[in-house]
Amino acid sequence: MKKKILGALLSVAMVATMLVGCGTNQTSAPADNAATEDKADDAASADDAAPAAEANGKKVGVAMPTQSSERWINDGANMKEQLEALGYEVDLQYAEDDVQMQVSQIENMIASGVNCLVIASIDSSALVNVEAQAKEAGIPIIAYDRLLMDTDAVSYYATFDNKGVGTAIGKYIEEKKDLANTSETYTIEFFMGSPDDNNAHMLYAGLMEVLQPYLDNGTLVCKSGRTSFDDTCILRWSQETAQQNCENYLTGFYADEDLDICATAFDGFAYGCKAALEGAGYTEANWPMITGQDAELMATKNIISGKQTMSIYKDTRLLASKCVTMVQAVLEGAEPEINDTEQYDNGKIVVPSYLCTPVAVDQDNYKEIIVDGGYYTEEQLAE
Ligand code: BGC
Description:
Elements: H1 2-21, H2 34-47, E1 59-64, H3 70-85, E2 89-94, H4 99-111, E3 116-119, H5 128-136, E4 141-144, E5 154-160, H6 162-176, E6 186-191, H7 198-216, E7 220-221, H8 229-232, H9 239-253, E8 261-264, H10 267-279, E9 289-290, H11 297-305, E10 310-313, H12 316-332, E11 353-356, E12 359-362, H13 366-371, H14 378-382
Parallel strand pairs: 1-2, 1-3, 3-4, 4-5, 5-11, 6-7, 6-8, 8-9
Antiparallel strand pairs: 10-12
Helix pairs in contact: 1-3, 2-12, 3-12, 6-7, 9-10
Bound molecules: beta-D-glucopyranose.
Beta-D-glucopyranose binds at residues 69, 71, 145-146, 193, 197, 199, 237, 266, 293-294, 314.
């Protein structure tokens, strides 16, 4: 509950930050940063969006998964803000990770006559029927961040390079522990995403592309033996389950030897691991490397204090702006921005996609990427 209130405050803060951050700071970041350049291009294209008058009072239903994690609150706030700025009416709903609730919310949006649906799914296989209903009613669907599987009712997909997120986490571990050259061995445990989320599978594939050779040659040692996706995935991205798993690993396998690396796929998991490690008596002296994803405010603070090592920064303002071009494409006939027409096969069709670039952030670059990028202010991070 406390978290939700924090989240609500944050969303207000994020909208305020957006107003300041979007478009104003783009040139202040160094030009040699690929992701920043990407963002600068993106800002220009968001400015090219169709003017408000063209929206004609059309209504967009935005179905988001949960408010229990900061990122989705920011995603929803950004989508609403950007669509409203173009003159669209927005019906934004959160389903609190309740699959059936999301189905009903989308049914209600269809019944209320929305002109377009933007869906970040909880369990996309549960949405196949309601998506067919939307198609029948002539309502186009854009998949937001998570691919909508097994449907031909989806027009476009806006996301981050999900395999790239896994590769970035893997490369971070590889570089910081110098896995290619070290004579040390490091213990590692894995905390992967929800099996009903395509992103989780792609992240795992990217991560293991980098780390599997080091598990094979013994540089990385997973004492629980749980390295497969099936053994390490965590339903609905539950922080509590991650904490419990970490506690179990620590008591079951790390009584005599420290855990060196928590390879987690989500900031929420990093918080769970942090709590488990504190409970098991880990201190600064033996604190492990902990990875995450989303660069949530809390995670960024934990990075600054050393309790989390890194996260993957996903600029939700940028994702929203890409998604908005897709909404405009289906409603106004504008050209959407697409940069991938191959990777995202949902079992029925290959969905034309725009992949934003994820960026690894840690103590060394958070100021440049996150603060200079206008995502969080120094004041927010100091609170
Ligand atoms: C998103 C991640 C997020 C996770 C948990 C995934 O689908 O891509 O950014 O951390 O869901 O909410």
